[in-house]
Structure formats: C-alpha cells, structure tokens
Design a protein that fits this description.
The chain has 218 residues and is α/β, with parallel strands linked by helices. It has one domain: Rossmann fold (3-Layer(aba) Sandwich). The chain is built from 8 helices and 8 strands; from the N terminus they run ααββααβααββαββαβ. It has a 6-stranded mixed β-sheet, with helices on both faces. Strand 7, helix 8 and strand 8 form a beta-alpha-beta unit. The longest helix is centred in the middle third of the chain and has 17 residues. Bound molecules: zinc ion (ZN). The site of zinc ion (ZN) has 8 residues, from helix 2.
C-alpha cells in the first residue's frame, strides 16, 4: 500500500541501476554480496582499508542517490552489505570475533549543514543498518567537522589535507565501549584524507581504529 502511494509521487527505480519498479534489484543485491577488497588510498590512514568494490556501477549510483537525491531507503541494502563485510572481516581474523570484542562503528564525519540539507547523514543511517545485523555491534557517531570546512569536490590532495587539517573533532554525547574494535565507516574513500584525519583525531583521544571500511573506493 505504502509502496503504491510512493510510486504515485515518485516513480520507483532501483537505486543501483535504475531498473523500474523496485527500490533495489536482485542483480544489484548480488553485486554487493561479495567479499570486501583491500584498497590503498594515496593518503594512507595508517590502518588497513577495505571496500565493497570500486566506485562504479551500482555502488556509485547508490552512494550518489543516498547522498544527493534523498534516497534514505538505500541505507538498507548498503548497510546490509557492509554488515556482511564486517561479518566476513571477523571470520577472517581482521577483526576480533564477537566473543572476544564488541564492535564500534564510527561514521566518518560529515559537514552538519550538508547532512541536514540532505535529510540526515546517510553514512550514519547505513551504519545503523549494518550494526543491527551483527552481534555485539554499536554505532558511535563520535566524529564531526568543525566550522569552515569546504566541500572537497574539485580540491587537489594538498588542498583537501589543508581543508581538513585539525577540523575533524570529537563530538560530545556519544562514546565508544572500552576494548571495542573500532571501524571507521564511510561511503566513498577518494584520496584518504578524511579517513586519515579521522584516525588521527581518534588516536589523540586514545582510541585506536582497527580498520576502515567503505562502500566504494574511488
Ligand atoms: Zn539494480
């Protein structure tokens, strides 16, 4: 019923390939259901980085639709895929198994104004879906961006670093469970500057990030 009503307002299409009549099609579901790959961004965050795949096809479309077209529903397939990847990392020993350590998912910081305009932060929403599917896993939105941070689109690597230096900050009101494995989550890793600044900020607060996991690596 709800779906029919929404269809009248906004014709439904797959967030990954634009196929008609479905929010997320079986083919795109299959494309996300893969083992994560190791990626090496130009600016190393100093911890292993994993991605569901390259920034292309359904991953790229879905990230853009969630970020810029208000497709909140895409948090479900993206979060489920990240949850499976985290489960795989636990089984492969890249993260401690649940009986040894809990897992804290830290969404990469986003400019708050941008997040508000886009109807909430898609990365945090996606992280919540991933956490729901995993034992002993919580979302810890502890990072934010201070003041005058420009959108990084179109900036060079050097400019991105200057833009972000010192501006990734700890937010009050949320904390990380002691002895948890900490995973920094983001939608896309491009140069690696956001991940590096985030890992640094957490390290200064005595929090060690175990791995970075993203939907796509550009
Ligand atoms: Zn599709």
């Amino acid at each position: 019923m709800m779906r029919t009503l929404l269809d009248l307002i906004l014709p439904m299409e797959c967030g990954g390939c634009a196929a008609a009549g479905v929010a997320w099609c079986p083919r795109c579901r299959a494309e996300l259901a893969v083992e994560p790959i190791v990626v090496e961004p130009r600016v190393s965050p100093g911890v292993p980085c994993w991605a569901l795949g390259r920034y292309s096809g359904p991953r790229r479309r879905a990230v853009l639709a969630a970020k810029e077209r208000g497709r909140r529903d895409l948090a479900e397939p993206l979060g489920a895929a990240l949850g499976s990847a985290l489960d795989w990392l636990r089984r492969e020993g890249e993260l401690d198994p649940p009986e040894l350590a809990s897992l804290a998912l830290v969404p990469a910081p986003t400019r708050s104004r941008a997040a508000r305009m886009r109807g909430g932060d898609p990365v945090t929403r996606t992280a919540s879906v991933a956490a729901r599917a995993l034992p002993r896993c919580t979302v810890a939105p502890v990072l934010g961006l201070a003041g005058r941070t420009r959108d990084s689109v179109g900036l060079t690597v050097d400019q991105r670093q200057r833009n972000l230096a010192g501006r990734v900050q700890l937010r009050s009101g949320s904390s990380i469970p002691p002895r948890a494995n900490v995973v920094l989550l983001d939608d896309v890793i491009t140069t690696g500057t956001t991940a590096r600044e985030s890992v640094r900020t957490l390290r200064r607060a005595g929090i060690a990030v175990t791995v970075v996991l993203v939907v796509a690596s550009a």
